[in-house]
Design a protein that fits this description.
Number of helices of chain A: 11
Oligomer: homodimer
Number of domains of chain A: 2
CATH architecture of the largest domain in chain A: 3-Layer(aba) Sandwich
Structural class of chain A: alpha/beta
Mean pLDDT of chain A: 96
Helix content of chain A: 40-55%
Strand content of chain A: 5-15%
Low-confidence stretches of chain A: none
CATH topology of the largest domain in chain A: Rossmann fold
CATH class of the largest domain in chain A: Alpha Beta
Largest sheet of chain A: 4 strands, parallel
């Protein structure tokens, strides 16, 4: 029996959102046709963005403990529905016997061909780390950073989702997207797994939003289906 | 760090529903104030109801494997958001070092004082096992069983949720509830964790529905709060 390992709790709502996407992307008529997972919903993991930006408590020991736990449970592949945690991707991949799918690779691969500018909606930590910018540039795409006020709205959106205040989060996201529209940006990657939860509460969005949670879920189901663990929709 | 162990995947949508209820019932402003969980979403566990009713493959070995896994991961308490699996509660509780909260106890405790008749909406297996009927009777409450046609609708509702067909599930549930209304039943316990997912898609329900997923989530958060693992809303 093959188990998908999910290193989660960063935040917890994003983890359940990810699990739900995997279920929706799986062609299953009964429980036994769904994919089995072991989910370490480790909410106590220190804040990733704060550690990168402000030298807060290092989350790497907690991340590696989670990787060890999932490997001990027999995970055949590991996914991490938290973009900022991918700042430590190399250290986690080195530690893990099971391969770790990369959320940024999955998300950037979903940018439609021909798109030349993509805004990056992410935590301050992820922007400072720069993995989205590097991945976009490697494909000839110009990363567009939100201006300071818009970035404050993105940060507030993420914080509100983590506190289960979804309507407030959608308001912040809506304001940030309006500034991108005025800058003629038509595609943005939601490079933080809290943002798609807020985006679902938006009335309308004229910016095309690439959803890192959904793309990681697609990559996970594709990985599982290739190995005969389940069937895709 | 205290971990809540969730033996899930029965079905997987019910497991994410349970996790989400725990998050909503927790007073958290950031990830670190949410409760950490280890979730064994073991969808391959053989069908519980079929095993009870029709002598299908015994799920007990898979259930005990899940209990062992959660104990090895250091779970301080275990919950199982599947009512039918509680047919094997005694065997699981005997095997587990961590205490296992009982979903039926939590649900029956939520019946308002003075209510004398409660319908049981559950799998055929759970009804044959009889744990809801016994628990209700021990509190002086008469359990009301759905008639054969209504029970077929309940079974179809559960099956549709497991296949992620929520609208179809709500239709079946609505028909079953209409027959209970005609029988002057005003309170029903949703004693299968798929049913609340269908109930959320109902336009209106004139029967008061006690939600086993929500009651187990409440009991879980209360257990955690009493031990200082987190704070309740």
């Amino acid at each position: 029996m093959a188990l998908i390992g999910v290193l989660g709790g960063m935040g917890p709502l994003a983890t359940v959102d990810f699990m739900q996407r995997v279920m929706q992307l799986t062609r299953a008529r009964c429980d036994q046709e769904h994919l089995s997972m072991i989910v370490a919903n480790l909410t106590h993991t220190p804040d990733r963005s704060r550690a990168i930006v402000a030298g807060g408590v290092d989350p790497l020991p907690a991340l590696l403990d989670g990787i060890d736990l999932l490997n001990r449970c027999g995970a055949g592949v590991i996914v991490i529905p938290c973009n900022s945690a991918h700042h430590w991707y190399a250290q986690m991949a080195e530690r893990s016997a099971a391969p770790i799918l990369h959320i940024v690779d999955a998300s950037v691969a979903a940018v439609p061909a021909g798109v030349r500018r993509v805004a990056v909606l992410a935590t301050g930590g992820a922007l400072v780390s720069g993995f989205y910018q590097a991945s976009l540039r490697s494909r000839g795409i110009e990363p567009v950073m939100p201006a300071a006020a818009a970035q404050r709205d993105i940060a507030a959106c993420i914080e509100a989702v983590k506190a289960t205040r979804i309507e407030a989060a959608a308001g912040h996201l809506s304001r940030a997207l309006a500034t991108l529209e005025r800058r003629k940006v038509s595609v943005a990657v939601m490079g933080c797994t809290e943002i798609p939860i807020a985006a679902r509460a938006l009335r309308n969005a004229r910016v095309m939003l690439i959803d890192s949670t959904q793309e990681l879920a697609r990559a996970t189901v594709a990985y599982a289906v290739e190995r005969g663990w389940g069937r895709a929709m």
